[in-house]
UniProtKB/TrEMBL annotation:
Organism: Pedobacter kyonggii
Protein's recorded name: RluA family pseudouridine synthase
Top-level taxonomic group: Bacteria
Domain Pseudouridine synthase RsuA/RluA-like: 16-160
InterPro entries: PsdUridine_synth_cat_dom_sf, PsdUridine_synth_RluA-like_CS, PsdUridine_synth_RsuA/RluA, RluA_PseudoU_synthase
GO biological process, alphabetically ordered: enzyme-directed rRNA pseudouridine synthesis
Pfam families xref list: PseudoU_synth_2
Amino acid sequence: MKFPNFKDLILFEDNDFIVINKPPFLASLDERGGSGETNVLRLAKQYSDDAQVCHRLDKETSGALIIAKNPEGYRHASMQFERRKVNKTYHAVVDGHVIFDQLTVDLPILNDGNKNVTIDRAEGKRAETIFDSLKYYKHYTLVECKPITGRMHQIRIHLATQRAAIVGDDMYKGKPVFLSSIKRGYKLTKGEEEQPIMKRFALHARHLVFKGLDDKDIVIDAPYPKDFATLIKLLDKFDA
């Protein structure tokens, strides 16, 4: 898969930090077992020698990702993540018409390793997310997700517990969106197999606030990538 030039991903840069708009299908770090494929860390190190990725986004998730350019920056960002001082906002498109008004989901998550997580009240680590519905469609809802903690798959599994799986997230029973399901009279040509509007789950890290080394807020807005923007545009047109 061809990725854009690293420079073109940059939303913000100063002496200590780079924030990029991570494209989907690009891993944040080396995968376990080191497949040697391109990832954010490798691209960042080609751009800035001491670059370190300060947190992770799932491979399919797009959006704002902080990279430190030096050890001081990395420590500074890591402390903020540890103390839950980084303000993160994600957007997700979910199945169904769901009304969330400052809904807090506080369900512990157990990481079984091997990219599997489960809700486990006995063994799991505390995980908390706040959800708000932003826009209602006939069959879907655009949801704002604010993770307070930073567990693996946290937003995805917390939404699934509310019967609001992210579209396209087959791990949590989210179904992909097909144009034929929202556009009346949509016909495929004979023998054509319909592709989903988005070939991944619809989750994007939209907004991020953290402090630079000068203690001033760095405020980031990450525009939707093309596939997410197309999904929203088609829902606006055919499912409103």
